[in-house]
Specification:
With 405 residues, the protein is mostly helical. The protein folds into two domains: 248 residues, no CATH class; 128 residues, Periplasmic binding protein-like II (D-Maltodextrin-Binding Protein, domain 2), CATH 3.40.190.10. The chain is built from 17 helices and four strands. The chain has a four-stranded mixed beta sheet with strand order 2-1-3-4, sandwiched between helices. β1, α3 and β2 form a beta-alpha-beta unit. The two termini are 27 Å apart.
């Protein structure tokens, strides 16, 4: 026990000398969390103040087109501007190219004919939509579907207006057939305990992702200290006083585990208190604090084992830090940290399941977002702990060989 305490004291002393790396582990993820939580919160709010600009040119100049423009102006999260009379399609296109508007909508001259004749097919093309290619595809699809909905509503209303007597006699009711723009779909967020709580926010999504990402950056201080000890002969001196490799490893594990837990606490506090202080949404920790502690501990153990193994396989601290960070970025990109897994093609989603960062992220989301328990994250904790033990065992073999030789 005394030997273990001695090794922990040695590691803590070495870490204290490298305060820049320690601050990196705290400051970097805090900045990521603040930037991503504040910049992305509009994506998670249906009533966001952020509006996508849309310009409309009315070439039909009819009562039907006026009704349609009024309906378009009610579309949530879009700021619709009606152009001056006589503006051509080319001018609308140029406005979109210049970046003044993300979308340009032209109501063609055959608009009223399409609305008034229910038999006219989609080949008529009563609308032309100009799109900035930089706009994300889901936004484009969402706007197109909403325009098609408003077009269908206008056509059906016109049909009912012309045939009101016959349709009423046949038992058709307008409100039962004409689609409504809102209120048809009831949204229920699914949680592990089947209890609906808060609506997911940008902070609730960003904090776990960037927390897991930053925990693996512990490879930087690990590699610096490991190679400093190797170069100045510390490892040889420690072995010369009959300190076993297991005490060396245990001392490093305990010391870096404490750093990981400090990192977790700091990032959760940033998400809970600092993000809302700057105008963002706060986070909740979930219903299982033990489950949160369990997944954080397993991610921390896996990250430390990774850092130790990479350090032992590298020739110097620069190589260890470079290789370690590059691999982290690759694993995070593949594992759904930078790009959500649901937008990946199927084969990429299968590859994502091989990333330890993906296991850690899903574990945090299970607890913090889906109201999961320790039992829900147990399989992912098993994967993290199992691979961590394998990496730690490999590190032990390499350490023993290097201290003997």
């Amino acid at each position: 026990m005394i030997r273990l305490l001695y090794m922990i004291k040695k590691e803590v002393t070495e870490i204290a000398r490298d305060i820049q790396s320690f601050l990196l582990l705290i400051v970097m993820p805090a900045v990521f969390i603040l930037v991503m939580s504040l910049s992305m919160q509009a994506l998670f709010k249906p009533d966001s103040e952020v509006k996508i600009r849309l310009i409309v040119a009315d070439h039909a100049m009819s009562a039907d087109s006026k009704k349609f423009i009024a309906a378009v102006k009610t579309i949530t999260n879009f700021s619709t501007v009606e152009s001056k009379a006589g503006v051509s399609s080319e001018e609308i296109s140029r406005d979109v190219i210049k970046g003044e508007y993300k979308f340009g909508l032209v109501i063609n001259r055959n608009f009223s004919a399409y609305i008034r004749d229910i038999n006219k097919g989609p080949g008529i093309k009563p609308l032309t939509l100009y799109v900035d290619p930089a706009v994300q595809m889901p936004v484009q699809v969402g706007l197109k579907h909403r325009l098609e909905l408003e077009l269908s509503r206008l056509r059906l209303n016109a049909f009912f207006d012309r045939n009101a007597g016959i349709l009423a006699y046949a038992g058709f009711r307008r409100e039962a057939i004409v689609p409504t723009a809102e209120g048809v779909v009831h949204t229920v967020y699914v949680y592990k305990n089947k209890k609906e709580t808060i609506i997911p926010s940008a902070a609730q999504q960003s904090v776990p992702a960037w927390l897991v990402f930053s925990m693996y950056f512990i490879v930087i201080p690990i590699s610096l200290i490991f190679h400093t000890e190797k170069n100045n002969g510390t490892l040889q001196r420690v072995r010369s006083i009959n300190i076993k490799s297991r005490y060396l490893i245990a001392g490093k594990l305990v010391s870096y585990y404490l750093i990981s837990m400090i990192q977790v606490v700091c990032m959760l506090l940033v998400g809970r208190y600092l993000v809302p202080l700057l105008g963002g949404d706060t986070i909740r920790f979930g219903d299982s604090l033990f489950g949160l502690f369990l997944i954080a501990s397993c991610v921390g153990f896996n990250a430390i084992s990774y850092g130790l193994l990479v350090s032992s396989l590298s020739k110097n601290s620069q190589a260890a830090a470079s290789v370690g960070v590059v691999l982290i970025i690759i694993f995070s990109a593949v594992g759904g940290i930078m790009v959500p897994k649901f937008v990946m093609p199927e084969f990429m989603q299968r590859i994502a399941n091989l990333s330890p960062l993906s296991w850690g992220l899903e574990g945090f989301l299970d607890i913090m977002l889906r109201n999961g328990t320790a039992a829900d994250v147990a399989p992912r904790c098993g994967l993290l702990a199992g691979t961590g033990l394998i990496m730690l065992y490999a590190y032990g073999l390499i350490l023993r060989r290097k201290t003997i030789h």
